[in-house]
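Researcher: We're teaching a course module on how sequence relates to structure. For the next exercise, students receive a sequence and then see the predicted structure as tokens, so they can try to spot secondary structure elements on their own. Here is the exercise chain.
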Amino acid sequence: MAITYTSGTLTSVNVNTDSQIIDMENHIFDLDPQSSPFTIFLNKAGKEKAGNRTVKCLEWRTKEYVVFQATTAFASASVTADLAVDSTAGSAALFVEVGDILYNPRPLRTTGEHMLVSALGSGGTATVVRAYGAGEIAYSGLAGANAWYVLADAAAEGSAKRDPLRVKMDTSENFTQIIKTLCSLTGTELAIDHYGTGNRRKSEQRRMGIEHQMKKERAFLYGKNVTAAVTSRTMKGMRSFISSNVYDFTGVTASTFKNSLGMNLIKGCYNNAGSDRKIALCGSYVIDAWDQAATSKLQLNQNINFYGLKMLNMVVPFGELVVSYHRQMDPNAIMIVDLKHVKEAYLRALTLELGVQTPGTDTKEDQYMEETTLRVKLEETMGYGYSING
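Model: And here is the predicted structure for the students to work with:
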């Protein structure tokens, strides 16, 4: 007999009929939204369809990223020097072209130092003319970790057309994970009168539905993907993606965190491209530290409505941070996420299959099942901090 697919409002008839698969995609996450806020945000923001068990995301990085870091330091004040823009590149230097003006504001003088890109080399290098600005002196203490700015190019009169804009393309990938949660009741459990529970099978479906969304939430936060696309796959969670802005706050007091070091973490998330509004998933100690915050840098607005959840809204000098207490987070941790660059990508949508028990057994079993993953790009716009004491 063919399986019947049911969607829409559930009734006592279709819930108790076996051999049905019920589309639960838009229902389950409203059961207990506060237990899985990140999944709620992704669900409300809209999902994507994954076309394969391996989901790839291409990150196009162009010269709109006008700030970059050199990978080597300038040890001397020579007139020309190789600027290793990206030592992993196999061709000409990325982000810069001949005629570009570079600027480093860090030298200990009022004007900083300007440089002219005079040639592009192999291996991601560029030759530059030092101290290009009038009256400047080549500074001998430039460090590779200093920030560099790409200013407007300086084309000569009658010069030829510019080279095309170079693009750096990074590939981020993830595996889809099959998540199942079983609702199982014996015939005796179904026959017993349970005070206040009504339909015992529906009650168990609700309870295990909450458990399913909590399992999925933990995978989204802390999952680690396998090294090969085998039949049993695990997805990479946000913690595994975030690598640029990771802070260890061991030994940092709550006062220091909320007034200075915590702001460094936030600032790092806004220094790169991304939205002006980000979400912060916080453990209990982090919420406690910020709840005590009363500085000129932080403005806390209580109970704003964000995707139907009541949240704290923090106004910082760089933008807005929507703060959510997260029950399943490490109580000493904070995760800052830019929803503009995170999507849930499902291969098979969440369904509830009724009556999956083995024939002849004294049980009634229903099962939640889905195959899904995260599609994440530009992890530099996000951050993670841990070992925070309240």
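Model: If you want an answer key for the exercise: The chain has two domains: 4-58+173-386, 63-166. Residues 1-6, 12-16, 75-79, 84-92 have pLDDT under 50 and may be disordered.
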